[in-house]
């Protein structure tokens, strides 16, 4: 079969070489973007007088039919036609005849593929932002129900200080907010049209790049044709923002997995988001959280492979750049899917409030309270730390907790202790009082919920 670019070739192509070079198995995902780009291009060719109105009408008619067939999944691609761009051009020519060959006037596959990727990344970024927003809403809803649910806060995965469960959940809302803003910011750079840059040097035809940019919803055009066809920074930014999102989700996954274990026993996942074991009848496994944690690896992998692929490329387009696609496509599916799974998982999880709060009765996470108590009564904090450390050691020897110590034990440690110490070390009381800005005190958490609600409502 003859190639669309076959003029200067004398040997027949070999099927296995074609197969190695082809991107059609994966870039068919860009079919809609490619046709939309072509429609805008051909319309511009007519307004600038490069082709006639009649020619445009015929080509546009053909493109609309292809669009329809693509939506119905009826287009048959050929590996010999290498990629989505050449496949569609061939199908168009078969449909409308030689006039279809005018479509590619003043255009190259290099600006065409860059355009398709811009359109694709823009759409996926917007989807990702709305999926983040949904997950944030679900986290806020859970947080609203658990302002006064006390549970252990950890550092080094050792019990540290009791916190409000809402405060913990809200930490993820703010992490996701940064993710949202990162994506939003990246849209500025996605929102620039490379179309009309030709292969690398622009074109002699009197094209109007602003017209196609506007028709396709771009805010601007690339200033330099060589930069336009060789830039994949916007894909890198998408993969990089995605990597941070997955890192965040992976941390939350780890927590969900720990919390749903018998050892922690803080939550139970809804049946919909858990699986059983083929051999152990008692099992309820947090597979979805584990999978999200696991899938983080492939997203990082796509970022690393694109960074590495681009690093040695001379200007302008190089075929290496065809390798930008699979990682980007996979990342979009992985991250959007993970965000959706998380929204469902968080929304339906059962929070074991009793177990959470009773676990704070059996630990030393109120020790800072005791040290602060002494410091508030005038003892230098460093000294207070030492006194309480000794009390904790005493408890460990005795097999009890700080609340179990008698007044005489307290007073032999320091005369500053009086009866009110028992109230101070109550975890609920301890959390309630931490109302420094951004702290876990109930009042402060209620303020934070209002703030989060406002931030989400603005979107
Ligand atoms: N399939 C190619 C890609 O994905 C399209 C651009 C090809 N351009 C070229 N001059 N070979 O990058």
Commentary on this structure:
- The chain is mainly alpha-helical and 459 residues long.
- 61% of the residues lie in helices and 5% in strands.
- The protein folds into 3 domains: 18-105, Fumarase/aspartase (N-terminal domain) (Fumarase C, Chain B, domain 1); 110-207 and 217-358, Up-down Bundle (Fumarase C, Chain A, domain 2); 367-425, Ribonucleotide Reductase Protein R1, domain 1 (Orthogonal Bundle), CATH 1.10.40.30.
- The protein has 19 helices and 6 strands.
- The strands form 3 sheets. A two-stranded antiparallel ribbon has the order 1-2. A two-stranded parallel sheet has the order 3-4.
- The longest helix has 37 residues, at 109-145.
- The radius of gyration is 31 Å and the shape is elongated.
- Arginine binds at residues 23, 27, 83, 85, 109-110, 113, 317, 319, 321-322.
Task: Provide a compact summary of the structure.
Belongs to the lyase 1 family. Argininosuccinate lyase subfamily. The chain is mainly α.
């Amino acid at each position: 079969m003859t190639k669309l670019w076959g003029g200067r070739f004398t040997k027949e192509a070999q099927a296995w070489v074609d197969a190695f070079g082809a991107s059609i198995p994966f870039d068919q995902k860009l079919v809609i973007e490619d046709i939309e780009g072509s429609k805008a291009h051909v319309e511009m060719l007519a307004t600038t007088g490069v082709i006639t109105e009649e020619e445009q009408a015929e080509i546009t008619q053909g493109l609309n039919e292809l669009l329809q067939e693509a939506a119905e999944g009826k287009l048959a691609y050929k590996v010999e036609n290498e990629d989505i761009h050449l496949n569609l051009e061939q199908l168009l020519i078969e449909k409308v005849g030689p006039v279809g060959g005018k479509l590619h006037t003043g255009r190259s596959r290099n600006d065409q593929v860059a355009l398709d990727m811009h359109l694709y990344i823009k759409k996926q970024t917007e989807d990702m932002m709305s999926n983040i927003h949904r997950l944030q809403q679900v986290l806020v809803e859970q947080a609203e129900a658990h302002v006064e649910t006390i549970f252990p806060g950890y550092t080094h995965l050792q019990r540290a200080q009791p916190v409000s469960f809402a405060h913990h959940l809200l930490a993820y809302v703010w992490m996701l907010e940064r993710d949202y803003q990162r994506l939003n910011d990246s849209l500025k750079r996605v929102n620039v049209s490379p179309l009309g840059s030709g292969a690398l040097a622009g074109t002699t035809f009197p094209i109007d790049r602003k017209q196609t940019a506007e028709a396709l919803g771009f805010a601007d055009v690339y200033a330099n044709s060589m930069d336009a066809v060789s830039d994949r920074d916007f894909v890198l930014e998408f993969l990089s923002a995605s990597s941070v999102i997955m890192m965040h989700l992976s941390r939350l996954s780890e927590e969900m997995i720990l919390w749903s274990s018998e050892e922690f026993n803080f939550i139970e996942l809804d049946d919909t988001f858990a699986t059983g074991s083929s051999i152990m009848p008692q099992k309820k496994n947090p597979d979805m959280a584990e999978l999200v944690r696991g899938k983080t690896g492939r997203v990082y992998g796509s970022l690393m492979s694109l960074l590495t692929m681009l690093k040695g490329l001379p200007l302008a387009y190089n075929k290496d750049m065809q390798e930008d696609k699979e990682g980007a496509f996979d990342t979009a599916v992985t991250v959007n899917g993970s965000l959706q799974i998380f929204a469902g998982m968080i929304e339906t999880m059962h929070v074991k409030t009793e177990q959470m709060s009773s676990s704070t009765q059996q630990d030393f996470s109120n020790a800072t309270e005791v040290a602060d108590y002494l410091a508030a009564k005038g003892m230098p904090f460093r000294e207070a730390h030492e006194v309480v450390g000794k009390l904790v050691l005493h408890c460990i020897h005795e097999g009890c907790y700080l609340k179990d110590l008698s007044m005489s034990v307290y007073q032999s440690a320091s005369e500053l202790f009086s009866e009110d110490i028992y109230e101070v070390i109550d975890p609920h009381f301890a959390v309630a009082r931490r109302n420094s800005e951004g702290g876990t005190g109930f009042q402060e958490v209620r303020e934070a919920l209002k703030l989060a609600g406002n931030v989400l409502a603005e979107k």
